[in-house]
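Record filed below.
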Amino acid sequence: MEYLLIVVLGLVIGGLIGSLINVLATRLPAEVNIFGPPLATATGEPDSRQLVPFLGARTDSHGIDRPNLATQLGAAALTTLALVFQGATWSAVETIVLTSILLAILRIDWQHHLIYTITIWPGILLALLFSLFHSPGQLLSASIAGAAAAGVFLFLFFLAIAIYKRRALGFGDVLLAGLIGTMVGLELVTAAILLGMILAAVGGLFLILIRVKSRTDYIPYGAYLSLGAIITVLLAA
């Protein structure tokens, strides 16, 4: 009975979080004020029904808004896992908040190939605040890991320009690396980044093999980095 209650709670809270992520994922790329209803994928028009968890993913043509539904299911899964493994604790709240931020970045970068600073800086501030709640040492670890990860990616950013005369990474990826570092700290930052890189390589190769992408197509690197960080945060919980 307890686990059933957790699953129901995870579905409800996760569905609401997914609906809010859908607001960001539809309004930010449209360059409209983020405070408003999400935009329908098919028409680009405001659709308040999409704020209703799961049921709001239905379209006017009785189809399914797949990105919206996938986001809500993902948020529900992450919320449920946090509650199962950490219970109704402050640690579970931290895990849900951090993974939700990463899920928002994943959704937007996968669908629109964009990483917005408005999804990065609040995440960094929250991650640092959570670290401070634990201990000054953890805050120091998060700060150093964030700066180091961003510094390495910034070096790779300019190195690619110098060698290939074009960007292999977006500057959003640099900021995302910094965010991941602040979320996981010094002990896990290398593992989180490497996992994201491996997922990007495997995922990109798979998409090429099934001919969804070609070798010259853009691969949403930030989405894979976010997924690697989500897995790391959950495993560390």
Observations:
- The chain has a mean pLDDT of 88.
